Structure formats: structure tokens, C-alpha cells
């Protein structure tokens, strides 16, 4: 399989358009046209021990949840960690390094959905109802193209528009709509009409063909339209389409419990389902571990930036990996109970599920790092 095909599958699982504007996702290193010869290697962090493991397992492609290239990089050499990472993997035969990061958080069935389920007794989807994103992602938008085409030529024009990049809505392509009508025109003295004669008013049965166009593909789509359309001067319009929020996609999650649980029970459920010895519980001011909870929210990793959204949507308890001391005090003083399970502890267990999804989508051999681990441990 070519790297490009794997990248398309990864994007179908967690579309990169869902990532935060601050993030760096997608193919970070490599050649999309190269052929993948070894297994797909999945890890949360691309540390030196993990790189050695990937090399030993002859990884053909690496999927690292956290982007190994995050900040602007002016040079790559082996005197610093990022350069060593790049050169070591490429020399070993890996043809690409890809990061899904916040796109995988935001996607349906991604880390947000998975984490909020870990708070319940059974850890199953049905136990959290009315689930929605804390900060929904806006979808749609872009441009809409409307062009008028003679009936006999509509399929040729439709296919040309698709090949140029139009007509994609979610996981569907070739998306168009056609309605019947009558077009009129009269060619001037210098014209060569495809239908009828110059100087004479013509009436033609035409279809109004509509499709969506990504802003980045407008020039290519218009060029394809002009080449495929039978008329010398095809009539077409481009409209700007506003985006709209989709509550099932985006940063964080909030939902209602099918039956109330105490804050302590939720913390214990989370520890058990994440295979941890324990988690930290910060009770809202004036409450304790026995506080009954009916609405919970979550954000894997570092979720302090979503506390305001959680409170605004009526969450009583918020699950995340880590928060600063004063962020935690502020949240509990505002009535929010917080459960902290450790940054990577709220992310790493999902990598096995992610690997299974990649395997189902591609049929490739997919392995999960055994040397990827939390960078710290409890000492007692």
C-alpha cells in the first residue's frame, strides 16, 4: 500500500479538519507516494526508546499521537532530538510519520467519547446520554458552484468537477444536485455556438448542476469546468457557504449519566478502566466524594481551557489529565468537581483501539508500541 492510501484512511478515522488551529497534524515527515513495506507502528509519544523499538520492528510507517514536530523548526540535524528522530526513522526504512492529535480527540468515537465512557460503571456508550462537544467544531462552509449544462453533457461535466476536487461532503464524494430548466442565449458575430447558430436566439433544455467546492480547489474546479463544458462561455455562479457547528464533533465532551453516581464512584470507575492504582479527586467547594453527579464533562490531556465551557453547560464533574494548581482551585471554587488522572493516562490506553481501527480500515499489519509509557511513576 502507498503511504497516500494509509493517510487517506487515517483521515477518514480522524479528519484533520477537526484539529485545533494551534495543532500540527497530518503527515509531518515522509513521502506520500512511497510504498509501505513494514508494519504500521502506533505510539502516543515518539521518545528515543520508542524509536529504537520502531526500528527493531522494521516499522514501515509511524503514527504518533503527539506531534514530534510541533513548533516551527528551522533546521534538522542529529545534534538535537527532533533531528535524531527524523533521521533514525528514515534510515531504518519508515516512509512517513503522521500525527492525529486533537483531530482524534474531536472525532466521533475518538478520545473524547472514549474517555467520558470510562467514568461509568460499565464503561459503555449507553450510560452517558445527550452527549455533545464542549466546543463544537464548525463543519461545512466553503463555496458552492452552480453551473448550467445541456442535458447530454451533464455527466461529463459532473465527472470533471469531481476529479478537480469538488463534491465532497463528509465521507461522501460525487455529491451534486441537478434540476431541469430552460436556458436561452444569442451568440454575437464573433461566436461559434456549440448549439444553434450565431445571431439567433436559442432555447436549450439545460440542467442546473450544483456542488460544493473547497476554497483551496476553486481555481482547479473552475478550470476543469471550462474544459469539460461544451459552451464557449459557460454560465456559472460561485456562492460562499457559511459553516455551522456540529455538536457531535469538537473539543471535549459533556453528557448526562443514565443514573446518578457519586464523585468518588466516578473517580474509582475511571481508575479501574484506565488500569491505574488511583486518580486525584478535587471536590467542589463545600462538597465531598459522596456528591451525587448527574452531568459530567471531560477532555483528555490538559483540559483547563475547557473548564468555562463545562461549567456553562451545567457539568458537575470534569475529567482531565492535568491542571495547574490555581486553575484547579478556581474550578472547585466555581462549583466544579475535578478528577485528574495524569496527562498521558487519559490518552495512551486508547492507542490499542486506534490501532484496531487502522487495521480494519487498511488491512495492514498494525503494532502498538510496548515501550511507550508515562514519563513518571508514583513513589510511596
If you had to describe this structure to a student in words, what would you say it looks like?
The protein has 380 residues and is an alpha/beta fold. It has 3 domains: 3-101 and 349-368, Udp-n-acetylmuramoylalanyl-d-glutamate--2,6- Diaminopimelate Ligase, Chain: A, domain 1 (3-Layer(aba) Sandwich); 108-134 and 252-342, NIF3 (NGG1p interacting factor 3)-like (Udp-n-acetylmuramoylalanyl-d-glutamate--2,6- Diaminopimelate Ligase, Chain: A, domain 1, 3-Layer(aba) Sandwich); 138-246, Alpha-Beta Plaits (2-Layer Sandwich). The chain has 11 helices and 15 strands. The chain has helices at 3-13, 48-56, 81-92, 101-106, 111-117, 154-163, 218-228, 263-273, 307-312, 325-333, 350-362, and strands spanning 26-30, 40-43, 61-64, 96-99, 128-132, 135-150, 176-185, 202-213, 236-251, 253-262, 280-282, 292-302, 317-322, 337-340, 366-368. The strands form 3 sheets. The chain has a 6-stranded mixed beta sheet, sandwiched between helices. Strands 1-4-3-2-15 form a 5-stranded mixed beta sheet, sandwiched between helices. Helix 10 links the parallel strand 13 (317-322) and strand 14. Helix 1 (3-13) packs across helix 11, helix 2 (48-56) runs parallel beside helix 3 (81-92) and helix 6 (154-163) runs antiparallel to helix 7 (218-228). The longest helix is centred in the C-terminal third of the chain and has 13 residues, at 350-362. The model has no long low-confidence stretch (mean pLDDT 93).
Keywords:
alpha/beta, Udp-n-acetylmuramoylalanyl-d-glutamate--2,6- Diaminopimelate Ligase, Chain: A, domain 1, six-stranded mixed beta sheet, 15 strands, 28% helix, globular
